[in-house]
UniProtKB/TrEMBL annotation:
Its EC number is 4.1.1.5. The keyword Protein biosynthesis does not apply. The lineage of its organism: Bacteria, Bacillati, Bacillota, Bacilli, Lactobacillales. Pathway: Polyol metabolism; (R,R)-butane-2,3-diol biosynthesis; (R,R)-butane-2,3-diol from pyruvate: step 2/3. One of its GO terms (molecular function) is acetolactate decarboxylase activity. NCBIfam families: acetolac_decarb. Keywords: Acetoin biosynthesis, Decarboxylase, Lyase. This is Alpha-acetolactate decarboxylase. Belongs to the alpha-acetolactate decarboxylase family. It catalyses: (2S)-2-acetolactate + H(+) = (R)-acetoin + CO2.
Length: 237
């Protein structure tokens, strides 16, 4: 059995619950690879080979070595690839098409690949302070960065449409350059010389911060939840 472990929900961030509720140390017990964000939506986290990196909204990339650092939302798994990726070149809009034979529509999966990127376009959430705004409010004013001719790693997840709310339906991908100086939540990319893997999960473990008073008291606007998540993720699925 291969498991994808997720702490918190994307709906929580839409509901203004951005307080950290799990430590990096606890999270790493459930996986050595993944993505997430820090307390106050402070940047974009990518976890590779058990190491935690944070892209800040000023463009700086940090190696997080304090494992007591808190996260409100993250997804992790242990890297045990299902198959090699069947393509040498890809961009954000063609990723699903190139994996069509894998029939991912109704399952959770992840990609992890290294490539040369002629273009990498990312955004990075800026740190928020209490009282927290909603994720959608933050998404309307996020710094974006582009880099041409960069080599690095893309890591992220595909989630079925029915799980839009607990997480983001479609692809949610983060990037980290080889030199650890450029990273973020991917809005678009164009890649060649792709080498990497697809991993399929037959179990989705949703962990909730039930001891957190803010989460217990949270009220959600369910009517606008899905459209808000799509907008906050960059509008591409």
């Amino acid at each position: 059995m291969t498991s994808l472990y997720q702490h918190g929900t994307l709906a929580m961030l839409m509901g203004k619950q951005m307080q950290g509720t799990i430590t990096a140390a606890e999270l790493l017990k459930h996986g050595d690879t993944g993505i997430g964000t820090l307390t106050g939506l402070n940047g974009e986290v990518i976890i590779l080979e058990g190491q935690v990196y944070q892209a800040q909204s000023d463009g700086q990339v940090n190696h997080i070595t304090d494992l007591e650092t808190l996260l409100p939302f993250a997804s992790v798994h242990f890297y045990k690839p299902t198959q090699a990726l069947p393509f040498d070149a890809v961009d954000f809009t063609t990723l699903s098409d190139k994996l069509q034979a894998a029939q991912l529509r109704n399952i959770f999966s992840s990609v992890n690949f290294h490539a040369d990127f002629s273009r990498m376009h990312v955004r990075i959430a800026p740190k928020q302070v209490p009282p927290f705004p909603s994720l959608l409010e933050v998404a309307t004013n996020q710094p974006e960065f582009e880099m041409a001719n960069v080599t690095g790693t893309v890591m992220g997840y595909y989630a079925p449409e029915i799980f839009n709310g607990p997480t983001a339906a479609g692809w949610h991908l983060h990037f980290l350059s080889d030199d650890k100086t450029f990273a973020g939540h991917i809005l678009d990319f164009s890649a060649s010389h792709v080498t990497g893997t697809l991993q399929i999960f037959d179990e989705f473990v949703q962990h909730l911060p039930v001891q957190d008073a803010g989460f217990r008291a949270m009220a959600l606007d369910l009517e606008g939840l899905h459209s808000g998540i799509t907008a906050s993720e960059g509008g591409k699925k």
